[in-house]
Amino acid sequence: MAHLLQNEWRAIADSLVEKKNEKNVRLKLHQVGASVRGVERATEAISMTKTELEALLEEFDAALVEAFPGPEPMSVLLVGGACLLLQGITTQPVDSVEVIILEMLGSEERTLVFHSPTADKIRRIIREIGKRHRLKSERQQFFHDDSAPFLLELSEQELPPKRLLKAYRKLQIYAPRDLGFLLACKLMIGRPEKDGADREVLCQALAIQNRSQAQQLVDRYFPSPAHQAAYRLPCTLESMFEK
User: What is the pTM of this model?
Assistant: First the structure.
């Protein structure tokens, strides 16, 4: 699956470059790249329960305190299945913590996707913790924001209202006040092999029973018809509601 997605990545880039649409190239590469990494993580055998995930986050916070002695926090908004697990909405184990970074320890940068001194240091911390817990390959980066550039571009840098879920000494974890934002994200990203179970839980929690309701939800957060078409939202909704 990862190999097929990598082929799709190259095909998308070739097609869009020919059209000289650099913004769409960047968005597509973020989406397909995140999908490749998601598939690679999903094919690993081990997933984390709520207790295991909380232990990893405690360890991550302790490492941040040691590595970054200043007062600036690392604040993140949960956008993946870990958000449901940590709130007790589901017991489905997860293989990673997907976030959008709000503050990154005083750095002007707010992403781990691109290289910077702070981002590289944080990635090393995450990888070392992953190794100590015997996570393999891509899963060593158990805390990441791979989907964040894609989601921020689609939402034009607008984030939903949030609430503080957990404040550690250095790490501050927020959750969207509206679970609908999580479902809209998962519908736009389009990873049925990874997000199918979470979609079902969210649809039940939000009483989303048909395609029209799901479309209205996505329109609330990602209203661009061009973006919805580019990321095959109609196909995603059809596969979910018109079986």
Answer: 0.80
Same domain, 191 and 117: no
Structure tokens at 206: 């939000």
Number of domains observed in the structure of the chain: 3
DSSP string, 65-105: HHH--SS--EEEEE-SHHHHHHTTS----BS-EEEEEEEET
Boundaries of domain holding 173? 50-177
Q: What is the pLDDT of residues 183-218, one digit of tens each?
A: 999 999 888 778 888 999 999 999 999 999 999 999
Same domain, 172 and 188: no
Task: Give CB contacts under 8 A, 24+ apart, made by 82-88.
Answer: 82/53, 83/165, 83/175, 83/176, 83/182, 84/182, 84/198, 84/201, 84/202, 85/49, 85/50, 85/53, 86/50, 86/53, 86/54, 86/165, 86/166, 86/173, 86/175, 87/165, 87/175, 88/50
